[in-house]
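Notebook B, p. 112. Complex prediction, attempt 2.
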Amino acid sequence: MSASLLAAVPYTPFDVEKALNPGNTAWVLAASALVLLMTPALAFFYGGMVRVKHVLAMLMQNFAAIAIVSVTWLLVGFTWAFGGDGKYLGDMHFAFMRNINDVVPTLGAAQTIPTIVFVAFQLTFAIITPALITGSTADRWKFGSFVAFVTVWSVVVYAPVAHWVFDAYGWLNRSGFEPGAHFFAEDFAGGTVVHINAGAAGLAMALVLGKRKGWPKQNMRGHNIPFVMLGAGLLWFGWFGFNAGSELGADGVAGFAWVNTNTATATALLGWILVEKIKYGKCTALGAASGAVTGLVAITPCAGWVSPMGSIFIGLIAGVLCALAISLKTRFGFDDSLDVVGVHFVGGWVGTLCIGFFSTTGVNPLGNDGILYGGGGHFGGWNLLLHQFLAAGAVTVYSFVMTAIIALVINLVIRNRVSEEDELEGLDTAIHGESAYEFGPLGGQLGGSGGVPSTLPKATVDA
Amino acid sequence: MKQITAVVKPFKLDDVKAALEVLGVQGLTVSEVQGFGRQRGHTEVYRGAEYTVDFVPKVKIEVIVGDGDVDKLVSAIVEAARTGKIGDGKVWVTSVESLVRVRTGERDADAI
């Protein structure tokens, strides 16, 4: 089987003897495990923010995303993202994990880890991206429809976007204006591919599904803020794999990425609760958790391109702007239930554009100098900012449009939204036949969620 | 026999219990309840939005007493539960027709 019609790139086997670097390989393997933990962490971050009758449905969608993408990525996702040298889409060289001992074209001579390790690392990114969408769709997306959506979306949306930005041959990575030039819209770990992508998709899904019953009049406060804090803490932990791991090596740039990640997260947390203090007079725990995640999002594209002092400002800007941005949904009337747009979309844009100002070759000689560093070099300064804008805009439009199309097609076949009765009863009992907690002294004798009596799920009634 | 029902601020439960014990009350029932009176609810901040929470947490205390004890017990509860601020709650008295102690089968006044 030949690779592809476009295959101008010659595939060569990865030279384990000469090219493999055990230190880099060990770090990327460990980082992959760290990033995988982020999806269960996200499940709890979101799970704590939904009401008690919907928490299992939220956890289930996130775990299902792990399971589904773990398969689709090996079949076609990876090869569409990182095979070949096409501008818009990868080839089929690595489909079904064939030819997996060949060098990945985008890494070329710089590849120091086995291709299968690169597959594992990138898989974890492909998993968390669709999982992020569940925050805007909480409490009303039918499980079966979600499963179908993620199966298609991970291949048709995530893989091409990853190719555009992460792959050196992608059109947003190689200059869209000057083909062949050594330029790339800088995205160290996925500000566009992961966060803007998921944020735009989240906005589309919130619009396609419509509002939750009773929103925004009814107060839909989360049922377990400690879960939210725990989830945020585990995301923070896993994110070191996400950002420092994206260097694909155990070196100084990975060290900068690590410190920058921590710094921006810290200052975004402070920025968010500062806004709360000024606007409402109190700093909330939910605000601290939200601010931390915002910082993680914003520093993601910047992690290996900016200095630790730069990341102080990037985090602070993101924390303040996103704390203000979450009130957009009530102003415009779209039920982005858990603020995927306010946190991931806005935070992703902030981080992606901040590169245009804060990027410095002093940290990473492979990058460009942003406006604050003199904007030197062919693509430094305003030119860099323009390219960042182009990349963020292109991903926004593609993700929004494709997500809406996929969701509307699925809706024709199996309907996206749960029935009104199921939504009011709670998705946990209505769809999954379980309830999350049995705290009362009766220990669940009455059935139902959170001690509120309701009918037992059919399957558990004594035969 | 009368039943005294008191809905009071949760942190006043211990004071009310102590006051009733001093006057010889042998048992009572407590439940956590929510509601509103003239105090109405309160506002909470949730992710950039302020919400009015209509129902405020309260504690409901129920105690069954002999007819002669009612007035002084009601006074004791009111005294113990009062902070002077809005939202202190209410106390009311209802008649009880009959009463049985499950263990012994004792009835009415003997079962108090």
